[in-house]
Every structure is written in structure tokens, then in C-alpha cells.
Amino acid sequence: MVMPLGSLELPQSQWKALAACLERKLSGQETLLPDDPAIEAVALRAIDQYKVVEQKREDKEVRQEQQQLMTVDVSTLATSHHRSLGPELVAQKAWEQLNMNQILSKCGFSPKEQALTEAVVAARLIEPGSDLGTWRWLTQRTSLTEMLSVNLADIGKDAIYEIADRLLLSKLQIETALYQEEKRQFAKGEPSVYLYDLTNTYFAGQCTLFSGYTPFASPY
Fold first, then answer.
1. What range does the domain containing 101 cover?
2. Has residue 106 been placed in a domain?
3. Does pTM surpass 0.70?
4. Helix, coil or strand: residue 82
5. Quick one: how many helices (H) and strands (E) in the chain?
6. pLDDT, tens digit, 9 for 90 and up, residues 116-144
7. What is the rounded CA–CA span in Å between residue 113 and residue 159?
């Protein structure tokens, strides 16, 4: 097969003339007598299609010549230093939208304290747990520390406890500024305040099993 022509609308009596026209155009020959317009139109369409097919074939040959294949045993693959990202992007966007760094700056928080506060708040939203659990999440499982303006990769676990004390001292000022910021951004309708518990303190125990009672772990 030299060239696929597809479905021809020309009558079979003109196929020989079409073949001659295609041969001349492909070889660059000139003719003194013009070709039949209908035959020439079919020949030009066939040549355009031929060029497209040939280009694809050449590209495929080049890819095959340049490809480098390696055999990999997928059962031996492992990952390391992997981190979560999706929820962290949402938390950071909300943090920026509420201008939290500006609020904390007015309360006297340093850039490092602002970054640590953002990390701890995000941890409470994404992976709530103890302060020790928060430290492990920040240092081992999240990409948040790589997204902050201050490097917290080597943060110690004591800093998690200390920033909570720092926030408590500015609690009223932060809450007031945050309320005003939210009221400014969401001005429609009556303002609403929702209070919910984020404490990580709980009591766990086990009692004698009576009818209707089971071992429990109750948060307070």
C-alpha cells in the first residue's frame, strides 16, 4: 500500500487519471495540460492526509528510538518523607482570608510565633489530638511546615505547649479582633457566634461491667 485514499467519490473510470495526478504531485513533476479540477481536489486531499499519517509514523519511530525502558519490581517500591497537602491548603487560605497574621502582629506576636500559631490551629482543625500528637503531626506527616513563611521543621515539642500559653494571654484581644474581621467580611445578616470545644484534655478509665455499662473514654 502506497497511500490510503479512503472513500473515493470519483467514478472508477477516473481512478487511473487520479493515480497519474498523485504520482506527478508526489514526485514533483510538472504537466503542460492542467488536471481535471475534481481529480486534482481529490489528489490534494489525499496528499494532505498522507502527510499527517507519515508525520505520526515518523514521530512514533523517533519515540521508540529514544525511549529508555527499565524493569521495576513494584513489590519493592516504598515511599519516604511523604506529607499530606490538601487540607493544609484550605486551612492556610482561611488563615490568610481572616488576616490572622496581622491580628497576631498587633498582639505582639513575632513572625515565628505567628507561624507556630497557624501550625497549631491547622493541626486542631485537620488532625486534632494532644499537644504531643500535634508535634508529631507537624514534624512527620504534614507539608504545612514547608508552606509557612518561617521554617518550623526543627520545632521542639515544648514550643507547642508554650504557644498555647502565649495565646491565652492575648485571648480577649485576638477574639475581639477576629470577631470584627469576620463581621467586616461577612456583613450580610445578623452576626452569629458559634462556640465549640477544642480541648485535648480527657479522662479515660475502666469500670466494673454492669448491665448497660461498658468501658468508657469520655472527653470533657
1. 86-190
2. yes
3. no
4. coil
5. 9, 2
6. 999 999 999 999 888 899 999 998 889 99
7. 9
